[in-house]
Amino acid sequence: MYHAFSLLSLTGWLGDELRGPEGWFHAHLFVLGWATMLAMGAVYQLIHVILQSNIYSLFLGYCHYFLFSIGIVGMLYGFICADVIWIAGSATLALSGILLFGWNMAVTLFRASQWNPVTISAACSCLYLVLTGLYGMLMGLNFAFGDWNGLHERLFGAHIWMGTLGWFGMLITGFSYKMLPMFYLSHDYSIRLQKVVLVLWNAAVITGVVAFLTGFKGGLLWLALLLLTAALLFYVYHLEQIQEKRHKSNPGPGIRWSVYVSRAFAVYAVALLIYSSQGTELLLHPRVVLLSGWVYLGGGCLSPYLAMPPKSCLFYGGPTNMASRQADPNSADGRYAE
């Protein structure tokens, strides 16, 4: 539903400035209403198979969904009307839903105590989501009361960086380590690069946040992009390792497309790194930011999500539950038997 509204208004705001009530409306409709809602649903669906245990509380899941959904609708209404009271109250509801989601995932992960690149990536992504929500709330308080004028732009940059690269990026890379081997029926592949990507990606997220919060955007922001590019290159190469060990030649067009998109985004990151070496201020040019956001969110993030629901329904939602049949109980890293 959120995506339908976003697409219907796409041509009217695609190239517009995103700062201001109308831009905030469309950005939150797309990122929170569609992308984050879809990502949260994927977490609820996949966490059971990743951990081989039940989620901590279904009740908290329903409460999270109720608060988050009502909060998003209220925020969007507040943006349309430019009503600070509506925005503040609804943002509080949405943040409460995010906190419930984070707590539910944290307890589920710690109770399972199965720490590997997949579960650590999921834990980090949920932590970044919570921090993104808190930074957004701080920006809202500053907008209402104006007490930290010098900090608002810094919070804004950290809010976007942590939400896009931290929440979405860590979730996609982590879950792909579980999904691709299942769809390709791959096993006996090395997971060493998963750990390398985990370290580099977290380093990129943290370095970028520090760059924005401290105001030292020059060298630190370019270093963050360098770390991210290295993580992407290792990630793409690891996907190739998984494909080399496959026992199924055709995982489906959606999965193949998600792999192609990952390669394309890695190429884009390399090009952006070379381009910004002329001057890091180029990274923050509005058109560069807008283009990078669309390439990353529209391609690098959402393509894997859109590719996986039909497949994941087959593996997780059917009465035969193929994932349970194919999971190798003797494999600690979650590899799959034929």
Would you kindly provide a written description of the structure presented here, covering whatever features stand out?
The protein is built from twelve helices and no strands. Mean pLDDT is 80; it is low at 313-338. With 338 residues, it is mainly α. The protein has helices at residues 2-8, 10-13, 21-51, 58-81, 84-112, 117-145, 149-184, 192-214, 217-244, 253-276, 286-317, 322-326. Helix 1 (2-8) packs antiparallel against helix 3 (21-51), helix 3 packs antiparallel against helix 4 (58-81) and helix 3 (21-51) runs parallel beside helix 11 (286-317). The protein is 80% helix and 0% strand.
Whole-number average pLDDT?
Answer: 80
Residue share in helix: over 70%
Per DSSP, the total helix count is: 12
The ordered H/E elements are: HHHHHHHHHHHH
Q: Which strand-content bin applies to the residues?
A: under 5%
Query: What's the alpha carbon Rg, rounded to whole Å?
Result: 20 Å
> N-to-C terminal Cα separation, in Å?
38 Å
Structural class: mainly alpha
| Shape label | globular
State the low-pLDDT regions, or none. 313-338
Quantity of strands, as a count: 0
Mind summarizing the main beta sheet? Answer: none
In short:
By secondary structure, the protein is mostly helical.
Which features does this protein show?
12 helices, globular, 338 residues, 0% strand, single chain, 80% helix, disordered C terminus, mainly alpha
Topology record:
Layout: H1 2-8, H2 10-13, H3 21-51, H4 58-81, H5 84-112, H6 117-145, H7 149-184, H8 192-214, H9 217-244, H10 253-276, H11 286-317, H12 322-326
